[in-house]
Known about the structure:
3 strands
Amino acid sequence: MPSLHLAEAHTGRLHLYELTWPAPGLGGLLGACHGLDVPLVFGNLTSGQPAMLLGDDLTGAEVVSAQMRGAWTKFATDGDPDWPAYDRENRLTRIFDTEPAVVPYPEEVSRRIWREHVFSALPLITDV
């Protein structure tokens, strides 16, 4: 929810996405886990630790990676990733999966539960 709160507080144009493609590596144990978008965005599907998440059959990974690389490249080139900008009324969110979609914010129930909660800033430096 902190990222959604940031999106809702932002005053300029922004685009929201959610990666729902479940990584099949490690028996699918981690699903669409945190950080999975990094190898997909950069097309690093076969080397290093990301390869463990993606498994041996890269068919789904290649599809989702192509979507993400295309959107990020288009956004870097002209500021438009090719899906509608997020706004508080429609809350359109791009879903990255083997079947891509643009949908109203998919975690709406969670958004309503957390909408009044204020997330405190995390300290940048801590005393050890």
